[in-house]
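Write out the 3D structure for:
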Amino acid sequence: MRSALLALLCLCAASVAHASCRDLDLTRRGSLAYAAEADAVIQYFGHNFFQITTAKGTKIVTDPLAPGMYPTPNVWPHVVTVGREHPNHNYVELAQGNPIILRGLASYGAEWNRVSMNVRDVFIYNLPIYQQAFGNALKGAAFIFDLGPLCIAHLGDLSHTLTPEQLKQIGRIDVALIPIGGVFTMPPDTAREVLAQIKPKIAIPMHYRDSSYILDAFVQGLPTRRPEGDTLVVSKAALPKQTEIIVLRPKGAYGGWGG
């Protein structure tokens, strides 16, 4: 398992070397004009399903969720990313318009698919990971969105801590969308280890089926905010100095089991 993962990581190395996520000192940090800007709006629709909107209006949908667990939103994205080939992650039919579909896996999950491309003002690349299902390791994909001043990682159904090679590829992250639910992903204690590895300024938990027990285990002792609503406006200039957990509440949240 490890040898296959390292081989693909080597293939991806050259493609992400120019991403500003890998050198945040090159961003516009400290500019007075930049300080007032909102660099991204992140909206949570439940499970692993988010929409990220950049300052220039580019809309990215991640792991679109089939109807049934939460209300299905009306979305018109420019691009859709899929980290797992399962209806709770790959229901691309809900995306209206004609978005670019970026799949982290090929052959319906049997192989990793390399992604490294610009979509409007966003550079998108993926990271091969492992997810799990009832004790079996399965291939999965995380996606990193380089917005220029801001770097956002959607960690997919990650089920393990990250290797040094993976950490190098992922770069320095401002916002991490992180699974915490266990069974199909890593449990809260492992998710806390991953937070310590990547040190994001903001972490938004996902894939925990609205379980207060799982969520409380994850946030215990960590700075946490629980705004009323499903949307967060993020500015690089206003990021906290240390990792803060922000718990977004999707509309119609009521729980449910899923992969």
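The domain at 2-12+38-246 is CATH 3.60.15.10 (Metallo-beta-lactamase; Chain A).
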